[in-house]
Amino acid sequence: MSSSTLPDPASASIAIVGAGFSGTLLALHLLQRSPPQTRVILIERNAQFGRGAAYSTGNSSHLLNVPAGKMSAFHSRPLDFLHWLQSLSEADLCGIVPGPGTFVPRRMFGRYIRHLVNLEMKVPEHGDQLELVRGDVTDIEPNGGGLTLTLDRNRTITADRAVLATGNFPPAAPPVEDPAFYDSPAYKPDPWGPDTLADLDPDMPVLLIGTGLTTIDTIVSLLDQGHRGPITALSRRGLMPHRHAAGGAGSAPETDSFPTRLNVLTRALRSSSLRQATIGGSWHAVIDELRPITTELWQAMCTADRQRFLRHLRPWWDTHRHRVSGPVADRIEAARASGQLRVRAGRIRSYRQDGPDAEVEVVFRPRFADELDSVTVGRVINCAGPDADYSRIRDPLVRRLLGKGLARPDALCLGLDVTTNCALLGADGSISRRLFAVGPVTKGTFWEMTAVPDIRQQAEFLAGQLAALVRPGPVLA
Ligand SMILES: Cc1cc2nc3c(=O)[nH]c(=O)nc-3n(C[C@H](O)[C@H](O)[C@H](O)COP(=O)(O)OP(=O)(O)OC[C@H]3O[C@@H](n4cnc5c(N)ncnc54)[C@H](O)[C@@H]3O)c2cc1C
C-alpha cells in the first residue's frame, strides 16, 4: 500500500472572517476540539470582538428578546449565561435581578461573550493558539494547498481553511422607479449606522421602513432620545412582533409527528393553537414546540413549499417566532395608543423631495387599497431587516467570492449555498473542503439560523467537523 500525505497538524490553521457571536463562538469551540498545534485566527473589521451588530448596542433599553435562561453560549451548559450574570456585582447589574425569565440589555450578552474569549485566552495552551486580528477581509484566493486571505492595508494571511461568519448585511432599499432619494441625507440606509439618529430634530416626523425587530429597536432608541414627533412604521403587511407570554409559554402536549407539506402543517398548527386556547394555554407553546425541529422541517419540505412559505407565511412566522420582551412591548403599545406611532401596511411607490434638505413625501399603496396614500417626513430610516440576497450585496469579499465561482447564492436568496456540514458550494455545485460558513449566512440550508440557541449548536457542530479535518488520521503504510 502506498503512503498518503496527511495534513501536518503543526501547520494547520483556520481563519474565521467576522467576530460577531457566530465567529467568536466557533473560535471558542475550535480551541476546545482541535489539536493543540492548530492556529485559530479570528478576524474582525470593527474594534469590538464578540459583539457584532446585535450585542454592540450601547443603549441599555435594547433588551435581549430571549430570556437569560435560554441565552447560554453552550448547548450543554444551558444556564451558563444566567450563572455569569448572577456572578456580577450589584454595580454591574445596575438594578437587574437576573433570573431565567429576565430579559437583560443586549450589551450584557456582548460582555459575556467577550468574557468567554478572555477566559479562553488565559488557558496557557489556548492563548497561543488564538490570534485576534483587526482587519477587513476583502478577498480569499486558493493558493494550491491552502487559502490566502487579503485584508485592508495590503495585508495577507494564509490559512488551511476559512469560515465566513460575516453575519447580516444592511437592508436593501425598496425598489422604486426613481431611486435618487436614496442619495439624499434624509435617507438612512443602515439602521445601525452611527449617524442614523444623529442631529434629529425631536419634533421631526420620521418614517421607518419595516415593522420587525429592527424597527422596534429604532422606536425604542427614538423614544429614549426624547423624540416627540410622529413615527410611522410601514411594511407590506404591517405586522409587528408579538410579545412573549407573561410567565413563559408553557408547554404543548407532545406531538407524534409533524407533517412536512406546508398546507397540512399550517392547518395542524392552527388547530393545535385553538386546542391550546380551549384549555387556557396559548399559541406560544405551539410555536415553541417547533423550535428543535425547525431545520429538519425546512430541509424535509419540498422547494415549492419553501418558496410558498417565504412568499405567504414568513411575516406571520417571524412575528410569532421572534417575539419581544414585555417591557419593550409595553413601550411600543403606549406609543401606538398615544398616536405618536402609526403602523401602516403598504408598498412604497415613490419619493417626492424639493431639494436635499427639504422634507420628503413618501408615496405608498396601502395594502388592499387602490388609492395611493402618502406621509411627509424629515427622515426615512430603512429598518427592513438584513439583506440576504447575495446576488446584489455589494460587499467586496462577497463580490469576489461569487465572481471567482468559489461561492453561490442559495436558490431562495436567503444566504450562501452550503451543505448540511456548512461547506460552501461553488458556482459549479462543487463542495469546498476549505471554505465554510456559520450563522445567518447559512439560512438557505438551515432556515432558522438567527437566534443564539440555533447558532450555538451550529458553531459547536462545525467546530467538530473542522477539528476532524485538521486532526492527523492513521498513517497508511
Ligand atoms: C439587533 C439584533 C438583535 C438581536 N437580538 C437577539 C436576541 O435577543 N437573542 C437572540 O438569540 N438573537 C438575537 N439576534 C440574532 C442573533 O444573535 C444575531 O443575528 C447573531 O448575533 C449573528 O451573529 P453573527 O456573528 O453571525 O453576525 P454579526 O453579529 O452580524 O457579526 C458579523 C461580524 O462579521 C464582521 N465582518 C463582516 N464582514 C467582514 C469582513 N469581510 N472582514 C472582517 N470582518 C467582517 C462584522 O463586522 C461583524 O462584527 C439579534 C440580531 C440583531 C441584528
UniProtKB/TrEMBL annotation:
Q: Which Pfam families match?
A: NAD_binding_9
What is the protein named? FAD-dependent oxidoreductase
* Gene3D superfamilies on file: FAD/NAD(P)-binding domain
Q: Where is the FAD-dependent urate hydroxylase HpyO/Asp monooxygenase CreE-like FAD/NAD(P)-binding domain?
A: 15-168
